[in-house]
Design a protein that fits this description.
501 residues, alpha/beta, Rossmann fold, nine-stranded mixed sheet, two-stranded antiparallel sheet, 18 helices, 12% strand, globular
Length: 501
């Protein structure tokens, strides 16, 4: 997952004893095509019109804008299919997270998403959710407004800074309201899950097989709760729980990111390129002081763009997700910014994670769609005063990122179209579903391991597979043990006996 889940405004081993290279393949259940609701039959029964789109097949699928009035207006979803084997197990839908990440593009990178064994037996399907990326994307802000939003002080300590933060938050809310998109207010995950069931039927699958990462796990849970008997093989990797509101979700993420910052500081302390000296705790303290210094003295890049406190924190957060590669990129970028006052490299890292090119153009609508989904799924009614209180409270457990993440929730306050979507899915048991595999990483900085334990315990028919590592999500992240067990489940439908890698 590339997008920073939950980062609002400023951000965002036991080895397998024996495992066959190609686990036995058994049929996916259910095997009988579910009967669609009568009022939605026209959508479920629309023909699949695939066309070649370069190393993949593509099509569009019509879905209702409003499921309470299915024939009043429609929107189109962009769908891609990658077929490299015989597809004897049907389709495997994938979603990389976000919200705002493109499943369409993710599926096209099939060989990096799943193993060769899985690709032999499944067609990989990517569906951009409504309003996201290639599926009638909602556009709320200009590139310049996005730059302003992400650079604005996200931990205000003066009345003037609070006023500025509220101003840019309202620009986002008002921009989405003025977008004219019929999807505004109808981009909640419950509607996106209903859309996926229509695509399942159009593709021709009786069962819905799914690999969801990060936010994609919430999309998978919503589907399983709405259509439990349609579930085939479902992997939820890096779990976001359904029953946690925005305040609790963001608080727990802030604490997890704080822990990961200390892990980064340990690695940094062992590098000659680290711009700070001392123990991990001492390095974190120095980093915090450097962030604060940027509040009044931002660094200017060669193109005149400023590295503000908010941008510096966001860049660091965005490179805490995947330590094997992220740390080695982040340390030299920080060295240039801290010791040489040259922020270009750190700004470039942020740009890579936020789809911004060197000319300042954002190539996706990930920022807008993140809010358009999040603010509907997890409404926030906080005021400036109550948000300020949370920011002070969170600074005790998460002094580096807690205040920024607390203030970031202000963008969802009074989100004007929150009532337009189907009601959010806030509790998931998926009673009657086939076995679901939940995967959690013990030191996940974005979706803490406790969430995987929680969701695995709430689902009626689920197993938990654990990776003891510092990493966001586990499958295809470098653990042969995890990959073998997830593959075995996808190919056999049987939950793994081993529980820890």
């Amino acid at each position: 997952m590339r997008r920073i889940t939950g980062s609002l405004l400023s951000l965002a081993a036991l080895l397998l004893a024996a495992c066959a290279n190609s686990p036995a393949v058994t049929p996916v259940l259910p095997s009988v095509m579910p009967t669609p609701p009568a009022e939605l039959a026209a959508f479920y029964e629309q023909p699949a019109r695939w066309h070649n789109c370069g190393d993949a097949d593509c099509m569009t699928v019509k879905v209702p804008v409003d499921y309470s009035r299915p024939h009043s207006a429609t929107t189109e979803l962009n769908v891609t299919r990658v077929s490299t084997g015989d597809g004897d197990l049907g389709s495997l839908f994938v979603n990389p997270g976000g919200p705002g990440g493109s499943a369409f593009d993710y599926a096209k990178a099939a060989e990096a998403v799943v193993s060769a064994d899985v690709l032999k037996h499944f067609d990989l399907i990517g569906v951009d959710p409504r309003g996201v990326a290639h599926s009638s994307p909602i556009e709320c802000l200009t590139d310049e407004q996005k730059d302003t939003l992400v650079a604005t002080d996200s931990s205000p300590d003066t009345p003037q800074e609070v006023t500025q933060l509220e101003k840019v938050s309202s620009i986002l809310r008002d921009g989405c309201a003025a977008s004219g998109s019929p999807l505004y207010g109808r981009m909640g995950t419950a509607d996106a899950a209903r859309d996926l069931d229509i695509v399942r039927a159009v593709v021709g699958d009786a069962a819905f097989n799914f690999l969801g990462k990060s936010y994609g796990t919430y999309l998978g849970q919503a589907y399983a709760e709405l259509f439990p008997t349609h579930v085939g093989r479902m992997v939820l990797d890096g779990v976001l729980p359904a029953d946690s509101d925005l305040v609790e979700t963001t608080r727990v993420q802030a604490i997890a990111l704080e822990h990961e910052l200390h892990n980064f500081a340990t690695t940094c302390s062992e590098s000659d390129a680290c711009p700070w000296q001392g123990s991990a705790d001492e390095i974190v303290t120095q980093m915090q002081a450097w962030f604060v210094s940027l509040d009044s003295n931002p660094l200017k890049g060669t193109d005149g763009r400023e590295l503000t406190q908010a941008l510096a924190q966001s860049a660091v957060v965005s490179y805490l997700y995947f330590p094997p590669g992220d740390y080695e990129s982040l340390i030299p970028a920080l060295e240039n910014a801290v010791t040489k006052a040259q922020p270009d490299q750190l700004l470039a890292l942020w740009d890579q994670r936020s789809d911004r090119d060197a000319q300042g153009h954002y190539s996706t609508n990930a920022l807008e769609s993140f809010y358009a989904v999040t603010c509907i799924d997890r409404p926030y009614a906080g005021t400036i005063d109550s948000t300020a209180t949370l920011a002070r409270e969170w600074s005790a457990e998460a002094p580096t990122f807690g205040p920024s993440l607390a203030w970031g929730m202000l963008a969802c306050s009074n989100w004007p179209a929150a009532a337009g979507s189907s009601p959010p899915i806030t509790r998931v048991t998926a009673a009657g579903s086939a076995p679901i595999l939940v995967v959690g990483t013990t030191h996940d900085p974005a979706t803490p391991y406790a969430w995987a334990q929680q969701v695995a315990g709430q689902l009626e028919n689920a197993g938990l597979l654990t990776w003891d590592a510092h990493q966001h999500t586990a499958y295809s992240r470098g653990s042969a043990c995890i990959d073998e067990q997830v593959d075995a489940y996808l190919l056999s439908g049987k939950l793994p006996v081993q529980q820890t890698c």
